[in-house]
Predict the 3D structure of the following.
Amino acid sequence: MAAGYSSPALEDSELTRLLGANDRKTWFASLMAIGAIFGGPCAGFLVEVVGRKLTLMICTLPMGAGWFLIVVGVNFAVLYVGRILCGFAMGMAALAAPLYVAETASNARRGVLGAGFQLSVSAGILAVYAMGIPLGWTWLAVACMSVSSLNVLLLLVVPESPRWYAAKKRRLEAMESLVWLADGRADVREEYAEMERNVRSQSSKGGFSVSELTSPANYRPALISFGMMFFQQMSGINVVIFYSNHIFATAGYADDPKTPTIIIGSVLVAATAVSCVLIDRAGRRILLLVSGVATTVSITALGVHYYLALERGYSLGWLPLTSVLVYVAFFSLGWGPVPWIVMSEIVPTRIRGFVNGMATCLAWILLFFVTKEFDSLSRALGEYGAFWFFGGFCLLSCVFVGLLVPETKGRTLEEIQGHFA
């Protein structure tokens, strides 16, 4: 919900008056990413020290504090701090939630539950867009704060990751967690034995050192994780979403600025729901490849629209609307949810907190610079050139997946990580 808050909130004249200059409005939207840059590495440390579940519970503290500051904000400085704190919590959750799901879900359901994380993000964005229609920016922040508080209560009923317990040599708690997750219907001794063997082989090497990243078993999954975060953000998804009001205006929606956000949010949710259904059937690689091809074509077509309109004075009113909807749908099918799932599957337990923290940090750094500097890029290359620039990265993402990303469908985490050994 924090990710979608700025769009409806900045439509409120009272908030824009409080912020003042247009540059402050841009910073209000962008500062969330600044907070998230630091939240990811912090979560990477905490998931190893206090556990995956407790890290998720801890992240509600900066989230609640951030929403409170936005509610009581009397000037732009207080609002800025609130956005940074919300972003910090988002960065923590973006690392800890997929990791928790990957370590607690069964092989058959790990993909759908992992994609469920992205589905919940998309649903939160749509919910805040919809609530932004009747609610002003203050009451919208109150609603978001209430939802984040509910998160703590829901986490109380679920167990800690059994793999984290096993890594800490807490055998009894690990077995209890496995039994709870299996709902008492399965014999978990074999699963625990495999988990313990993997943990023992890694713990025999002593404490973690950054020098271990020179080993192919470690640096290959690390580089794949960094690459997926890079291509996810360089696909231009956040630019397309932030630029959607202007794009939709060319298709006849200029009088209702909230219509584009509702349409985009609905497509995000619907396409991510389809991804949840397909990810454990079609596999991760095929979804990434289909998503990469479709986003390449659609964002290139969007660039064609701007080229025709600006250089030839000719406009196809249906083209920008169709391009954006196809782009958002296919991004949500693959490159939206899948990188978070695969990153949590392929990185060895021993280095998972560090690598995932750095990869999450990279994602938020790129998000900030891509959205903040898009206007500069548009002036340098033209609007059509800017969209073709991102289309080039969408095409390169297909090459990256085809050459480097392994299929993880239906395999245990130990089997996946053995692929790189």
In short: The first helix runs from residue 2 to 9. The mean pLDDT is 86.
